Amino acid sequence: KLANATNVTFFPYYQHSLYVAVIYTLAYSFIFVLCMLGNILVCLIVLENRRMRTVTNLFILNLAISDLLVGIFCIPTTLVDNLITGWPFSNTVCKMSGFVQGVSVSASVFTLVAIAVERFRCIVYPLQPKLTLFVAKLAIVSIWVLAVAFMCPTAVALTVEKIPFHYMVYNNNFNHTLPLYTCYENFDNPRMRKVYTVVLFAHIYLLPLTVITLMYVSIGIKLFSSVLANNEVSRKKIKVIKMLIVVALLFMLSWLPLWTLLMITDYADLDGNELDLLTSYIFPFAHWLAFSNSSVNPIIYGYYNQNFKRGFEAIWKARPFCCLVQSQLWMECVVLHSGRPRSDQELEMTAVNKKSSNTEESDKVSSLVVSPYQVWDN
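Given the sequence above, the corresponding structure tokens read:
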């Protein structure tokens, strides 16, 4: 606060010094670029190659799309909101921004649950019929419908209001003041906000985390209890388990601070100074940490999944840099260097090797012996 005279309160237009603002901008820009590049590459790999359109990869594609929406609608608006004291946009942007943010985050979380459940079925019960692509598409539609349903109250309650007797001062010039507007959830009953926060916490964090943990613990037990033929298989088992632990821990740790702060602000009796500290410094970090989960998801699944790793390498080798800049050229860009391998050939390498290797896999199918490591990479 700059001043408080005759019940009129003045705030600086920018919340932070230039040094702090630069740190916030660089931090949010880093996860934004990482989120865009990683998730766009995941979408390209799945969409451009028919052999990659498996049930698991459809869920990963949906995860990439929802994470892209998180990057597009959550990261920039949250950064601006953390830098400027008031809400600088219209009431429509307030409603749409909050609604799309909530839907994209919810869809991302629900997709992580779907991936965990699908992997659980394939690895723990490998002899049961696998999910079909049709069922996977129905599950994806259900994910988005459920996400929209959870966020409808947000779209209704969000509104922009002018705060009486509060003004922003631009560059410490009291001749250049602006009214202070805020975008917030205005429920008819103030207690409804607290109830709604608990409902979202339970269904978008606590319950998904519980399901993901149970699924991955069961998968880990299954892999540890399987008979290992040699050290190579043992190393592969350890790599799979590491991925499961990383996914669960990153999801839990990245979202826990933000949900904790939301619960504190709704249920703890904080004074003005404590709220200023939370909104100015702690909330920006908590938002950054939560959104970073959408940026690292492609890295996790791409690094630990050999098919996606080959896809990343193929796109990196086969496509010139212009394709990364102009989005329309993603599907149309022509490879000028004939000596470089084409992405389809790279991605089909696994399938070709499986067909031409030997008859061991057919023997496995006939004897109904399914390796959980084969299932994981499918």
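The radius of gyration is 24 Å. Try to locate this feature in the token string yourself.
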